[in-house]
Amino acid sequence: MRKKHHHKKKVSPTKKWSSRLHLWFGLSVGFVVFIVSLSGTLYVFKDEIQDSLRKEAIYLKNENVGTKPLPINLLREKVSLELNEKYPVSAVEIPLDKTKSYQFQYYEKSKKGWNYFQQVLINKQVYVNQYTGQVLAVYDEKYDVFNILKYIHWGLLLNSEWGPYTVGIPTVLFIIMLITGIILWWPKNKNARKGRFWFNWEAVKNWKRKNYDLHNILGFYASFIALLLSVTGLYFAYPYVKNTFTFALSGSWELPKEKERKSPDSLMAKNEAVFDLAAAQTEKLYAKSSSFRITLNGKNKKGKELKNLPVTVYGLDGRYSERNLLTFDKYSGKLLANKPHHELNTAEKYSNANYDIHTGSYFGIIGKIIWFIAGLICTSLPVTGFLVWWGKRKKKGKKI
């Protein structure tokens, strides 16, 4: 009798190479993808959780609301005396909602150090009753779990100069894995399509098959959001990615730089009420906004001295996408420039919105829920993928 020869099904070169790249990249960066996905997923509901835990510090008691707030300089002095830090108060965030407290911030960063804890010298959030000057609460953001999760996600807690590359490079490979995963998932015909969109486990008892379906089906549904998360993450990590976005949206490789504003008032002696003058004008111009941030130490986040007084206005609570920028003379408080959100070009608007898109907050609470679920699936993919490979490896090892 003739022996029956079982011919292996021919695999297209595209799927063959997709399978190899998917496996090689998965084994090489799977652990980093797991850590980055998990930390990002846990960070999604940061605002909601913190607002709930800090409710007593954020919202003021009714008896204090309605009176005139104390001068910002006086409040700053009270904070400095009570905390007795060697670094100056760097900024204050003022809510337009009069029932909410002011938030003073200490933030100093060093260029030295190989990790996050050495680079960030201080990062404290101080909640103050603006009507009485009482310090309601002090939170050390440097050691806050959400801030640590953020910097794990951003650069595995490594130096901010090269740390993002340790995440950025695996993210690029993860994008290739997502694309090759979609290619491998794509069914050949209608019959093959039936088992690709949902689980059919009625007659399946083998855990390997169930694990394969988890990796295959959940990976497909999460892949499109995962691609968006990956690209928006690379926007932060690599300047050339940001420049490419900027060029595509505005025709220029760089975002417009803020012009240096000069005022004859800069020759005058500094008005002690300059912050209050700037705050009053900001509230008048953007009365329907959520809050605004005033720099108090005369420096930007990189430590460079500012020639003017910038005020950033946030249009919506918990969002950074709708931002307006005011520039005041830092001596007299005279308004030098007003750059509202609606006058920004498309690239500038996207630059402001990229963080919100990456975290899901741009799409509201529904967006955050979807992002959270997609993040959980992305966290599971390296695990289920490894188990698929390990199962096949063990099966091959049994052959004689």
From TrEMBL:
InterPro entries named in the record: PepSY-ass_TM (IPR005625)
Keywords, ordered alphabetically: Membrane, Transmembrane, Transmembrane helix
Lineage: Bacteria, Pseudomonadati, Bacteroidota, Flavobacteriia, Flavobacteriales
Coiled-coil portions: none
Any matching Pfam family: PepSY_TM
This protein's name: PepSY domain-containing protein
Membrane-traversing stretches: 21-45, 165-186, 218-238, 369-390
